[in-house]
Amino acid sequence: MTSFSDLNLDPKVLKAIEATGYTTPTPIQAGAIPPALEGRDVLGIAQTGTGKTASFTLPMITRLGKGRARARMPRSLVLAPTRELAAQVAENFDNYAKGSRLKKALLIGGVSFKEQDMLIDRGVDVLIATPGRLIDHFERGKLLLTGVEIMVVDEADRMLDMGFIPDIERIFEMTPFTRQTLFFSATMAPEIERITNKFLSNPVKIEVERQNSTSETITQILVEHTPKAKSMAAKDKREILRAIIERDSAKADDPLRNAIIFCNRKVEVDVVAKSLKKHGYNAEPIHGDLEQSHRTRTLDGFRDGSLKFLVASDVAARGLDIPNVSHVFNFDVPSHAEDYVHRIGRTGRAGKLGTAYTLATPADGKYLDAIRSLVKADIPKGENPWTPPGGGNAAPATREEEDDKPRRTSSRTRSRSKPKSEDAPPVEAPAQVAAVEVRHEPAPQPQQRNDTQQNRNRSRGGRGRNDRDSGPRVVGLGDHVPTFIELSFDERRDEA
DNA sequence: AAAAAAC
């Protein structure tokens, strides 16, 4: 078994790792760090929770150790899809770069440019950014990416989901082709494949399975409910949610200590958070419409335990590393099956046990099917601890007056009936997220490139990035005008 | 049916 000390990392980095208490690299770290240190491109196929972040920060710090940043010319660049993820990478970087003199800047939206500008002006070794803000800085002429030696794309599949791929391509094209690229994605969708073929050069491909501690430690439970009317679904689910919270808080083993409650829509996040608060629960919402400072504060509160219930949109579904989350609730069944895996992966982390509830109504059938087929397993059904007043679950409507309210109004917080949190024995059967195949492919063949000329002539203006494999035809950087510069603002906007 | 990311 390798240990970090076998990995040729900078002694100062090793010291910082030691201080964190880790001794053994995770599979993605063991696979990615050695080639990354050699300067090779790396294609890492790994989920969050596999130690992915350290697998690029550690070699980056080591490799950047020598050399010095120049004003406005960062030496490395890390791209992350959300502000929170970027901030998390920055934190990780701070931890491991303690002993070094490396300067870093975090470029994310929602905060002022001023401070970010100042840092860039002084020169940074590491730039950690979300695509939008990075491009904004670039457009203002505050930033040159021609000095980037190492570029990291984290959570590429999520970037794809969020429509960032064109931005990512533009950013790739602003950096020198001589850069080293470390590229991470949980899946290899065709579009991701295309990007990696285009921008990675003879990468070392490392594919690791979802960490056991994630899948095997999560108890998944499906709670089904048939509302008397469709419009009652949300209200009923809020009742069910509280009933489960009450029941599981009182459990002897693996009791509920805290929870992330995922909703599909931002308005629903607000409604559920408000409703929980109204019922005396310590809950706060988090989603993209909230001010960044508020988002940060809320997340910090949840991390340090002062906030017990985080009601979240999918902004918090992926990548966020929050240890000690005992429960995850899918208040809504996610409409993208992969999001299910990401959401429930927020619990059961670092070897701890976790419970993931999914509240479903008959309308969710086809999404549940998609989830079942993705995880290649059934989600065990658990008991619904809430009984609607005056009747069974599937009984015909008797309280129509409540149902007929317009949707907006009825989804406002009006929940009032006390949950009947009888001690229905929790029916739990452990389910596992299907393991992803493990494949280590240390050295795939070089890509065959013979379309250099076509690439060069493409209307988007970027020269073919693949020229790298077919000889030193591209000389220097001067002939390359970043694509987005050639487009007007309107064109850029229309492209998006 | 949506979320996220730039002013």
From TrEMBL:
Domain Helicase ATP-binding: 33-206
BP GO terms, sorted: response to temperature stimulus; ribosome assembly
Biased segments, Basic residues type: 408-418
Catalytic activity line of the entry: ATP + H2O = ADP + phosphate + H(+)
EC number: 3.6.4.13
Motif (Q motif): 2-30
Keyword terms of this UniProt record: ATP-binding, Cytoplasm, Helicase, Hydrolase, Nucleotide-binding
Similarity comment: Belongs to the DEAD box helicase family.
Entry protein name: DEAD-box ATP-dependent RNA helicase RhpA
